[in-house]
Write a structure and sequence with these properties.
The protein has 339 residues and is an alpha/beta fold. It has 2 domains: 155 residues, Isopropylmalate Dehydrogenase; 160 residues, 3-Layer(aba) Sandwich (Isopropylmalate Dehydrogenase), CATH 3.40.718. The chain is 45% helix and 17% strand. It is built from 12 helices and 12 strands. The strands form 2 sheets. The chain has a 7-stranded mixed sheet with strand order 3-2-1-4-12-11-5, with helices on both faces. Strands 6-7-10-8-9 form a 5-stranded mixed sheet, sandwiched between helices. 44% of the residues are buried.
């Protein structure tokens, strides 16, 4: 039985989305057990309204809730009974629990995971790796997307190794094509960090390095992994998501602006629905935190039930694929760089 913790408070649609996503995951995976953390009175009342396998769902009382404006270091010390910190501590202390999923505060989750759970052997810094769909029908992982604003070339090489193994083992991408985010495709582009990282990645047999990538090529399908610092990666991901949402809004406005467009849209309704689903980030889960000693998945704060279910699926597949031991083995092949 694979046991996964679900932090049920902190997201925009919690606890309903977290509960419904967890129960959907139970129906999808017969060998899955979920542990829901949060106010047991609230969770109990919500669960009483739903049909599910009660043998595979457990509630752990955690009455406190972490706000997005709270300092992560304060949370670790003062909110140990919060739904997130209770999940983090249980993940650390219990060998039978494989992973946790949260849609709460990113800063609190990263800090709590690093301080309480710790890193895999040889990992300098863990990194977030969200997924985006590509125009070729595949997916691309962006690593890092917010955990590390400042990086060294050694960090970027580790991000590339971890993300490549993630895409290969969890999503079946053979020899993932890995690029370095830069201001130009030529080898000499970028600052000193990017130039040195380029050389390191060329000397890393565990990574199928294909050179630099400009941001406009992210969704082309030419790449399976893009490596970057957390600041650039966060801006990249949110810019793409925001552009997709605004284009959908404009398309809807234009369709309703003229009768002839409405008629045409009616004939193309199925295609529009498919395109909307293709660009909806809710269908792609969350950002996995690669490099921690236990599996941690961070969902969007606006995650609905389908996104929470996808996050749990990501955690499940990371655990069943044996990803973390494979990351440790790959990292051990290379010289350890100090920060």
């Amino acid at each position: 039985m694979i046991k996964i913790l679900v932090d049920c408070f902190g997201g925009d649609h919690s606890p309903e989305a977290n509960i419904d996503g967890a129960l959907a995951a139970l129906r999808q995976f017969p060998d899955l057990q979920v542990i829901l953390t949060g106010d047991e009175v609230v969770l109990g009342a919500k669960l009483a309204e739903r049909q599910y396998d009660k043998e595979r769902a457990e509630v752990v009382h955690a009455p406190q809730v972490i706000g997005c404006d709270e300092r992560p270091t304060d949370v670790i010390r003062m909110k140990r009974d919060s739904s997130m910190m209770k999940a983090i501590m249980m993940l650390r202390d219990r060998d039978d629990i494989a992973a946790m999923v949260s849609t709460g505060s990113t800063g609190a989750l990263v800090t709590g995971a690093l301080v309480r759970i710790g890193r895999l052997r040889g990992i300098i810094r863990p990194a977030f790796c969200p997924l985006l769909p590509t125009m070729s029908g595949g997916i691309v992982g962006i690593c890092d997307s917010g955990a590390n604003v400042e990086v060294t070339p050694a960090h970027l090489r580790q991000f590339a190794i971890m993300a490549s193994l993630y895409m290969e083992n969890v999503y079946g991408v053979s020899s993932p094509r890995t690029a370095l985010l830069n201001v130009g495709k030529e080898a000499g582009k970028g600052d000193g960090i990017r130039q040195e990282a380029y050389t390191l990645l060329q000397e890393t047999p565990d990574v199928h390095f294909v050179g630099n990538m400009e941001s406009r090529e992210l969704l082309t399908g030419f790449y399976d992994v893009v490596v970057c610092d957390g600041f650039s990666g966060n801006v990249l991901v949110k810019s793409v998501e925001g552009t997709a949402l605004e284009l959908l809004k404009k398309l809807k406005r234009d369709i309703f602006s003229r009768t002839v467009y409405k008629v045409g849209a009616l004939l193309m309704k199925r295609m529009f629905e498919e395109e909307k689903a293709f660009m909806n980030y809710q269908n792609y889960g969350g950002s996995v935190l690669l490099g921690t000693s236990k599996v941690v998945v961070k969902g969007h704060g606006s995650s609905k039930a389908v996104a929470v279910c996808k996050c749990i699926e990501q955690a499940y597949r990371m655990e069943t694929s044996g990803l973390n031991p494979k990351i440790e083995a790959a990292i051990a092949k290379y010289e350890h760089y100090e920060e």
